[in-house]
Amino acid sequence: MARELKYDVVIVGQGPAGSSLSYLLRKSGLKVAGIDWVDWDRLWGKPCGDAIGAHHFDETGLPRPSGDALMQEVKGIDLYSPSEEIRLRVKGEGYMIDRNKYGRRLVEEAYKEGVDIFLKTRMGSVVMENGKLAGVKASGPGGETLIFKAKIIVDATGSGGSVRRKLPPSWPVYEPLKKTDASIAYRRIVELSQEIEEPEYIRIYLNTDIAPGGYWWLFPKGRTIANIGLGVQGGRGYPHPARIYREKLMKRPDVRSEVRVLSDAGALVPTRRPANTLAWDNFLGIGDNGYTVNPIHGGGMGYAMTAANYAAKAIVEAFEANDFSRKGPLWKLNLYYMRGLGAKQAGLDIFRIYLQDTPNEVIEWALKNNIIDARGAYETSVTGELEANLSLLDKVKLIAGNLRHIGRLLELAKVKSYMTRVKQLYKEYPEDPDQLQAWVERVEQLYREYKRELGVNW
Ligand SMILES: Cc1cc2nc3c(=O)[nH]c(=O)nc-3n(C[C@H](O)[C@H](O)[C@H](O)COP(=O)(O)OP(=O)(O)OC[C@H]3O[C@@H](n4cnc5c(N)ncnc54)[C@H](O)[C@@H]3O)c2cc1C
Questions:
Q1: Ligand 1 within 6 A of CB of 37
Q2: Which residue's C-alpha comes closest to atom 51 of ligand 1?
């Protein structure tokens, strides 16, 4: 026997995207259900680097991490060149968090304020009625079949996209993730015998010998605990990052000083532009399944929170208008996201494609010659516009200094112009869903042209 439950909104998945939305809707007066297949102690359980910028909390109204959810305050990032001779210190406030403790806090607060939380509840299929998305079917604790009916179903199930992929194929909501547009990432949380100096700076190492198409990191969580890991680009035949960790990173004295492994696991990170749409009739999709992730550093928690914040606004407006179609307020999630953070994300995606084929010697040379400095790295990450020192004088100086890299330098100017162009396209994201296909074709055309110019064939 199946039990039918009626809600205004059902949020499938209570990771960073879903639980942020549950929290933000807790005082909306709407009848909301949040479901997840894990239990309390495994909420937000996806392996992660656990680093997040402080501004995300202020921008979304989510509580800053505190108490036992906060493991280390962060003052900035130290970015190392492949030889590690050059270090850029990029200042910026952030946190190293205990994901489970922070996530639990959001879900508990949402629950206390009236959101119904169903844990150990696995969504299996979607319920369609007269061609419309009407709910989801799930299996609750003990195997009970639960049918959640709602006006709006939100997919917040991470990169698996459990809801998206089950919607009718004629809906333009599911785009399979190309392997080369994903990073395979692996991390350990370890206790170290050696004390970490300046634990308030997280470390990122650019080194294609260790992390091809990605980077490796050491993020302190206090003086003796660190989150250490790496991400490599998928689909290029590179070794698995867990193997690289064992064979290469463990040779380093700073990594080898581990006395205890507290956790080790890996997962996929989408590192591309956002999905073409985050909304359709009675449907929203946020977080990793909407590819709302920074394509350069793979940070997805803050982007998921931003998407959740916009989703909350669109949902409230949809109920005010009593219109749950793609032509109504739900579409505003796309307009808010794509024209703001999404435009920046697409700009960074263009830069990511360039970086993933850039060898160590060019990275070393660009950092050594101040082509990108700490301010530029910061500005690029904030705006999605490439802030590189490309003045004529710099070019002359460099061309005189190193003939081998002229081609790469000229390419950088090209990359910068494509970043600006793609951002502009995202700012023109269509008001009307009927115009989506034409807009997608313009985006795809721009990517094709860019890849052809760079000679990228993956
Ligand atoms: C190794 C690694 C390091 C990373 N480092 C960072 C970092 O330092 N900073 C950062 O910001 N981001 C980082 N990320 C990315 C970040 O972890 C993700 O972007 C973020 O967790 C995405 O949140 P989400 O809510 O979309 O998805 P998820 O965290 O995947 O949550 C999805 C939830 O949905 C539930 N679910 C899935 N399917 C179903 C179903 N059928 N029924 C019920 N429930 C379901 C899952 O149990 C889960 O709780 C990293 C990722 C990896 C892999």
A1: yes
A2: 48
Instruction: Write down all domains in the chain, each with its CATH number in brackets.
Output: 2-55+100-177+272-336 (3.50.50.60), 73-95+179-270 (3.30.9.10), 345-454 (no CATH)
Give 287 Cα–ligand 1 centroid separation in angstroms.
8
Three-class SS state of 339: helix
pTM equals 0.96
- Mean pLDDT, residues 375-398 taken together: 68
Q: Residue length, the chain?
A: 458
Among 72-76, 378-382, 430-434, which stretch is predicted with the lowest mean pLDDT?
378-382
Helix or strand or coil: residue 29? coil
Identity of residue 420: T
For the Cβ of 183 lying below 6 angstroms from any atom of ligand 1, the answer is no
Regarding the beta carbon of 189 and ligand 1, being less than 6 Å apart is answered no
Q: Which residue in the block uniquely carries the two structure tokens 């100017």?
A: 413
Closest CA to 406 of 443, 378, 434, 369: 369
Q: What is the pLDDT of residues 170-196, one digit of tens each?
A: 999 999 999 999 999 999 999 999 999
Distance CA 217, CA 50 (A): 11
Residue 156 near ligand 1, beta carbon < 6 Å: yes
Rounded to the nearest angstrom, the distance between the alpha carbon of 45 and the centre of ligand 1 is 7
CB of residue 293 inside a 6 A radius of ligand 1: yes
**Tens-digit pLDDT profile for residues 240-280:** 999 999 999 999 999 999 999 999 999 999 999 999 999 99
**Is any ligand 1 atom within 6 A of the Cβ of residue 110?**
no
- What is the Å distance from ligand 1's center to 158 Cα? 5
- Digit-coded pLDDT (tens) for 295-326: 999 999 999 999 999 999 999 999 999 999 99
Q: Give the ligand 1 atom nearest the CA of 289.
A: 26
Nearest C-alpha to atom 39 of ligand 1 is from which residue? 157
Burial tier of 403 (Cβ tally within 10 Å: 0-12, 13-18, 19+)? exposed
Task: Indicate if the pLDDT at residue 407 is higher than 80.
Answer: no
| Ligand 1, atom 10, residue with closest C-alpha | 299
Rounded-to-integer distance, Cα 77 and Cα 276, Å: 31
